[in-house]
């Protein structure tokens, strides 16, 4: 491609609203253009890089036995109502009406549509298992779009769905997809980890995320320093032994704590460790209030609360609701003398506490010498806190460390969550109907592009891995008005294309400094410069990743480039 014939609107100034490297560089290098908050156009360079990522995805999906189709972005509300998600998905679902006042949604995902299609088209066990996938634009009305392509309202996604007659069949395809995803992100050049995860709004049980390691990642990964264990912090189990204190029980006493509401304030005022304070919170679990307890030096994990109670929805009660229940404000609530209708769930660490401190359900008052089991009863003890750095690894090997990650892929074992809700069934060999057992497998294609840009850059611009770079070679004649340079550049352009190199020829009448700055910013793997020695048949080759430069005779250029790309 001739650079004069494509659109690469590079910017010299740093975009003021771009917070992270990938967003800044993709805008500055002319890959993307923002149209609205969280909505971007993919300009020619980005489109070529996305095409390369999609090609890798298609090749690995075919190896895994998945067939490609394309589903509609516009989905009728009835399908979502059948699954129940029309009412539970939340405000991220973009809803609309047509001219006949029929309700539709722009698809954030396609479980309902694909389940409906397979239910009609695959009625017999003889056609199972089957795995279908698509690469398509998705829509989610993010409350706060940010970080460019990493959190947008419109994005490109690969989503695959598998249908089975047995859990063993699902396990087999799940493992194939795990390997396919590992291959995809490896071929994209990414530094990533597969971690245990929560299924969120998709549903189902067993699930893993593929996380690209990055300091700007919105997710925290808990990993072992001595094994391969890794999990999203929301799902990392706590595997601690809590020993009950040998201290003798003391008499429960109510004390005044004027103005002391936070754990830190109460700790300082009463001169006690945060680990000996019971943190009490009221949560609304499936529309019913529940008191939840954790130790003062621990943080409550609402995902674990939801899973421990097998709930559909969990949210924190607001202060007005709390006052209505307990006649006190936040900072003074506690588990002693609660209404009998309010059940208590507590973290396992609370069970071993002795002579602890908690709120007294009376503003500006706390209890001291609180003993669980004596002063209040807990209905369920469970692991409901976030794991912490330094905790033992759940697999018993080493201790936990934290890293930040960008989620680029997610695989789920859905089971019969959707097939049962939508009455989607197949007939077995005896003519008996059963709900399909399903799996779901997603990759954020445009998010992967941003994750690569986040990991591969320097102070001068982007540095694209060869497998997904828009072009292999940036061919730059320094002066297009110099006949020798123009002639040699045109000759090399045609010869390199003939040897299947993808070449971007900078044929613009720009100053050399502009061309070189743009080249570094755009970040193609190799730059070939045709300069003052063109008449002598000598060009300069620069490797973008290392900055290494060498002068090469034209007759040796093909061999040099072939060897370079073998190493990149």
UniProtKB/TrEMBL annotation:
<dbReference type="InterPro" id="IPR004154">
    <property type="entry name" value="Anticodon-bd"/>
</dbReference>
<keyword id="KW-0547">Nucleotide-binding</keyword>
<dbReference type="InterPro" id="IPR033730">
    <property type="entry name" value="ProRS_core_prok"/>
</dbReference>
<dbReference type="Pfam" id="PF00587">
    <property type="entry name" value="tRNA-synt_2b"/>
</dbReference>
<feature type="domain" description="Aminoacyl-transfer RNA synthetases class-II family profile">
    <location>
        <begin position="52"/>
        <end position="465"/>
    </location>
</feature>
<dbReference type="GO" id="GO:0140096">
    <property type="term" value="F:catalytic activity, acting on a protein"/>
</dbReference>
<keyword id="KW-0436">Ligase</keyword>
<dbReference type="InterPro" id="IPR050062">
    <property type="entry name" value="Pro-tRNA_synthetase"/>
</dbReference>
<dbReference type="InterPro" id="IPR002314">
    <property type="entry name" value="aa-tRNA-synt_IIb"/>
</dbReference>
<dbReference type="InterPro" id="IPR045864">
    <property type="entry name" value="aa-tRNA-synth_II/BPL/LPL"/>
</dbReference>
<dbReference type="GO" id="GO:0016740">
    <property type="term" value="F:transferase activity"/>
</dbReference>
<dbReference type="InterPro" id="IPR023717">
    <property type="entry name" value="Pro-tRNA-Synthase_IIa_type1"/>
</dbReference>
<dbReference type="InterPro" id="IPR044140">
    <property type="entry name" value="ProRS_anticodon_short"/>
</dbReference>
<dbReference type="InterPro" id="IPR002316">
    <property type="entry name" value="Pro-tRNA-ligase_IIa"/>
</dbReference>
<dbReference type="InterPro" id="IPR006195">
    <property type="entry name" value="aa-tRNA-synth_II"/>
</dbReference>
<dbReference type="GO" id="GO:0004827">
    <property type="term" value="F:proline-tRNA ligase activity"/>
</dbReference>
<dbReference type="GO" id="GO:0006433">
    <property type="term" value="P:prolyl-tRNA aminoacylation"/>
</dbReference>
<dbReference type="InterPro" id="IPR036621">
    <property type="entry name" value="Anticodon-bd_dom_sf"/>
</dbReference>
<dbReference type="Pfam" id="PF03129">
    <property type="entry name" value="HGTP_anticodon"/>
</dbReference>
<dbReference type="InterPro" id="IPR004500">
    <property type="entry name" value="Pro-tRNA-synth_IIa_bac-type"/>
</dbReference>
<keyword id="KW-0030">Aminoacyl-tRNA synthetase</keyword>
<dbReference type="GO" id="GO:0002161">
    <property type="term" value="F:aminoacyl-tRNA deacylase activity"/>
</dbReference>
<comment type="function">
    <text>Catalyzes the attachment of proline to tRNA(Pro) in a two-step reaction: proline is first activated by ATP to form Pro-AMP and then transferred to the acceptor end of tRNA(Pro). As ProRS can inadvertently accommodate and process non-cognate amino acids such as alanine and cysteine, to avoid such errors it has two additional distinct editing activities against alanine. One activity is designated as 'pretransfer' editing and involves the tRNA(Pro)-independent hydrolysis of activated Ala-AMP.</text>
</comment>
<dbReference type="InterPro" id="IPR007214">
    <property type="entry name" value="YbaK/aa-tRNA-synth-assoc-dom"/>
</dbReference>
<keyword id="KW-0067">ATP-binding</keyword>
<keyword id="KW-0963">Cytoplasm</keyword>
<protein>
    <recommendedName>
        <fullName>Proline--tRNA ligase</fullName>
        <ecNumber>6.1.1.15</ecNumber>
    </recommendedName>
</protein>
<comment type="similarity">
    <text>Belongs to the class-II aminoacyl-tRNA synthetase family. ProS type 1 subfamily.</text>
</comment>
<dbReference type="GO" id="GO:0005829">
    <property type="term" value="C:cytosol"/>
</dbReference>
<comment type="subunit">
    <text>Homodimer.</text>
</comment>
<dbReference type="InterPro" id="IPR036754">
    <property type="entry name" value="YbaK/aa-tRNA-synt-asso_dom_sf"/>
</dbReference>
<dbReference type="Pfam" id="PF04073">
    <property type="entry name" value="tRNA_edit"/>
</dbReference>
<keyword id="KW-0648">Protein biosynthesis</keyword>
<dbReference type="GO" id="GO:0005524">
    <property type="term" value="F:ATP binding"/>
</dbReference>
